[in-house]
From TrEMBL:
The keyword Iron applies. GO terms for biological process: execution phase of apoptosis. Residues 66-161 form the Rieske domain. PROSITE patterns: RIESKE (PS51296). GO terms for cellular component: mitochondrion. InterPro entries: FAD-oxidoreductase/Apoptosis, FAD/NAD-bd_sf, FAD/NAD-binding_dom, FAD/NAD-linked_Rdtase_dimer_sf, Rieske_2Fe-2S, Rieske_2Fe-2S_sf. CDD domains: Rieske_AIFL_N. The lineage of its organism: Eukaryota, Metazoa, Chordata, Craniata, Vertebrata. Keywords: 2Fe-2S, FAD, Flavoprotein, Iron, Iron-sulfur, Metal-binding, Oxidoreductase. The gene is Aifm3. Belongs to the FAD-dependent oxidoreductase family. It comes from the Eukaryota. This is AIFM3 factor.
Length: 547
C-alpha cells in the first residue's frame, strides 16, 4: 500500500519539436536541406516542415489532469508510476530534475519502473532497450519506437500533471520522418539507397535515414514473402501468424516511402558499376548499399535428410507447420542451440514426446558454461524433455515419404513424426564471393566500427558481419543477436549520411523457456572461469564469465 499525500504533481505531454539534424538553421528559421548526390545528380533532403504549435494539444478533450506527489516525495535516482485515470506516466527524478515519459517499453510492454535508471537513461528490465529520460528517444535496442515525453511543471513545491489521453494509451512515439520527394520521377532500375535483407538491421537502417531527414529513394529487397517481422518469435511463440508479428504495418512503408521488394533474391553485386543483379535477371543501380542478409541454417548431412516433415525454422510458415504437426505427436530436435532449446520448450506441453539430440555433454556449454548448462538441462528434464547427448543423427527413416524414425550414431532409434534441425547457421553471403567485398574465411563480411566494408559506399550489418567490439579491445566478433542487428542498422544509416558514428553498444540477448528468462550482457567468448552468485538450482543467479 502506497500512501500518497494530497498534493499535486503536474506532468504535461509535449509533442517534441522536429528531430533536427546537426546542420545549422537557415536565416528563415527552417532547417537547411542537405544536398546528397545520387548518380551524379544533386538532390535535397529535409524533414517535412510543420508549424510548431504553441499549444501541443490540438484537441482540448484529449487532455487529462491528475495529481501525484509533492516534489520531496521522490528522491534523486527514483522512479514512480503515476496513474492519471486513463493511463500511466513514469515520473523520474535525476540530478534534482523531474522528467516524465511513458511507463511501458514499446518493445513488449515491460514496466519501466522496474528497469534501471542511470546517467539520464532508463533501461528496460526485460530485453535491455534504453531510452533517454529527457527526450524519450530510444538509444539502444530492441524495438523501433520511442517513449512519449511529458512536460513537468513545478509550482510552489507542487508538480502538476497534464497529459494527452492518446499518448497515455499508446505508450509509444514514432520519431518524425521525412518522405521521399518526386518519387514518380525515379527510374525503376535505380535507387539512392539499396538495402539487401529486410530483418531488423535493414528496417532500422531505412527508418533512421528517414528520421535523419533523408528524402531520396530507399529500396529494401528480401527473399521472403513478408514485410519485416519479429524473427525471435519464430521459436519463442511458434503459432504466431505473419500478420501478428510484423514490425511495421504495410501503411507505414507507404507513408514513409520505403519500398520493399518481396521474394526478390540478389544473385551478385557489381561494385564497379554499383549494381545489384537479381536472380531473375533484373538489375538495380544504387548509390549506397547495405548488405543485411543474415544467415542461413545449416542442414543435416545424414542419410534421409530429404524426407518430409524435417524442418529448419526459417519462416512463420515453418514454425506454424511444426506446431500443427507436433501436436500430440513425437518430436525430435537436433541441436541444443538457442533455437533448438526454445522450440523444445514451446512444444513440450503440446507434443506427445520431445527428444533433443546434441553433440556436447550439456546444452549451451560453449556459451553459458557447464554449470549453467546443467541447471538449464535439469529444468528441461523436469518438463518431460528427453536428452540424447554426445551423439548425432546418422539416418532419418521414412514411411510413405514421411519421417518415421531418427537413428542416432549411438545406435538408439527414436520415434519421430516431425524433426526440427537447429545445428547452427552460416552467413548468407555466397552471392558476394566474386564481388571484391572483403569476406573472412567463415563467410562473414568484415566491417569497421562505422559498419563500412572495404568498398566505399557499401555497408553491412547484422548476423552476417564481423565488427570491432569496443569492450573486447576492438576484437573482430560476430554477434548474431536481435539487439545488435538493430544497432548495426542505425550506425550504418548515420554513416551513409557521413555522421562519423562508431558503434560502442554492449551486446545483449535474451531467451525464455518454461517461464524462465535468461538474459546475457557482454561477449564472453573464450572465458576460462564462471563465477556464480545466487542459487543455480532455483535458476535465480548471476553468472560472471571471466578470463
Amino acid at each position: 500500500f502506497l500512501f500518497v499525500p494530497a498534493v499535486e504533481v503536474k506532468i504535461e505531454v509535449v509533442i517534441p519539436e522536429k528531430e533536427r539534424s546537426k546542420e545549422e538553421m537557415s536565416p528563415n528559421g527552417k532547417a537547411s536541406p542537405l544536398i546528397y548526390k545520387v548518380n551524379g545528380t544533386a538532390r535535397h533532403y529535409h524533414l517535412e516542415e510543420h508549424p510548431i504549435a504553441s499549444n501541443p494539444y490540438h484537441n482540448p478533450k484529449d487532455v487529462v489532469e491528475a495529481s501525484a506527489c509533492h516534489v520531496k516525495d521522490v528522491e534523486n535516482g527514483q522512479m514512480r508510476e503515476v496513474d492519471l485515470g486513463c493511463g500511466k506516466a513514469l515520473l523520474i527524478k535525476e540530478s534534482g530534475e523531474f522528467h516524465a515519459v511513458g511507463h511501458k517499453c514499446p518493445h513488449y510492454g515491460a514496466p519501466l519502473v522496474k528497469g534501471v535508471l542511470s546517467k539520464g537513461r532508463i533501461r528496460c528490465p526485460w530485453h535491455g532497450a534504453c531510452f533517454n529520460i529527457g527526450t524519450g528517444d530510444i538509444e539502444d535496442f530492441p524495438g523501433l519506437d520511442s517513449l512519449p515525453r511529458f512536460q513537468v511543471k513545478i509550482e510552489k513545491e507542487k508538480v502538476y500533471i497534464r497529459a494527452s489521453k492518446q499518448a497515455l494509451q499508446t505508450q509509444r512515439r514514432t520519431k518524425m520522418m521525412a518522405k521521399c520527394i518526386s518519387l514518380s520521377n525515379y527510374n525503376l532500375s535505380s535507387t539512392n539507397v539499396l538495402i539487401i535483407g529486410a530483418g531488423a538491421a535493414g528496417l532500422v537502417c531505412a527508418e533512421t535515414l528517414r528520421q535523419e531527414g533523408f528524402s531520396d529513394r530507399i529500396v529494401m529487397c528480401t527473399m521472403e514473402r513478408h514485410l519485416p517481422y519479429d524473427r525471435p518469435k519464430l521459436s519463442k511463440s511458434m503459432d504466431s501468424h505473419p500478420e501478428q508479428i510484423t514490425l511495421r504495418p504495410k501503411e507505414f512503408f507507404c507513408t514513409y516511402d520505403i519500398e520493399v521488394l518481396t521474394e526478390m533474391q540478389v544473385a551478385a553485386v557489381d561494385i564497379k558499376n554499383k549494381t545489384a543483379v537479381f536472380k531473375d535477371g533484373f538489375k538495380m543501380e544504387y548509390n549506397k548499399l547495405l548488405i543485411a542478409t543474415g544467415n542461413m541454417p545449416k542442414a543435416l548431412s545424414c542419410k534421409g535428410k530429404e524426407v518430409e516433415n524435417v524442418f529448419n525454422i526459417r519462416t512463420p510458415e515453418d514454425a506454424n507447420r511444426v506446431v500443427k504437426l507436433a501436436t500430440s505427436k513425437n518430436v525430435v530436435i537436433v541441436g541444443a542451440s538457442f533455437l533448438g532449446m526454445e522450440v523444445a520448450a514451446y512444444l513440450a506441453e503440446r507434443a506427445h514426446s520431445v527428444s533433443l539430440v546434441e553433440l556436447e555433454e550439456v546444452p549451451f556449454k560453449k556459451f553459458f558454461g557447464e554449470r549453467v548448462g546443467h541447471a538449464v538441462m535439469k529444468m528441461f528434464e523436469s518438463n518431460r524433455v528427453k536428452f540424447y547427448m554426445q551423439t548425432e543423427v546418422s539416418e532419418l527413416r521414412e514411411q510413405e515419404g514421411k519421417l518415421k524414425e531418427v537413428v542416432l550414431k549411438s545406435g538408439k532409434v527414436l520415434r519421430a513424426d516431425v524433426c526440427v534441425v537447429g545445428v547452427g547457421a552460416v552467413p548468407a553471403t555466397g552471392f558476394l564471393k566474386q564481388s571484391g567485398i572483403n569476406i573472412d574465411s567463415k563467410g562473414f563480411i568484415v566491417v569497421n566500427k562505422m559498419m563500412q566494408t572495404n568498398i566505399p559506399g557499401v555497408f553491412a550489418a547484422g548476423d552476417a558481419v564481423t565488427f570491432p567490439l569496443a569492450l573486447r579491445n576492438n576484437k573482430k566478433v560476430n554477434v548474431p543477436h536481435w539487439q545488435m542487428a538493430h544497432m548495426h542498422g542505425r550506425i550504418a544509416a548515420l554513416n551513409m549520411l557521413a555522421h562519423g558514428m562508431e558503434i560502442s553498444t554492449v551486446p545483449y540477448l535474451w531467451t525464455a523457456m518454461f517461464g524462465k528468462s535468461i538474459r546475457y550482457a557482454g561477449h564472453g567468448e573464450g572465458f576460462d572461469d564462471v563465477v556464480i552468485q545466487g542459487d543455480l538450482d532455483e535458476l535465480k543467479f548471476v553468472a560472471f564469465y571471466t578470463k
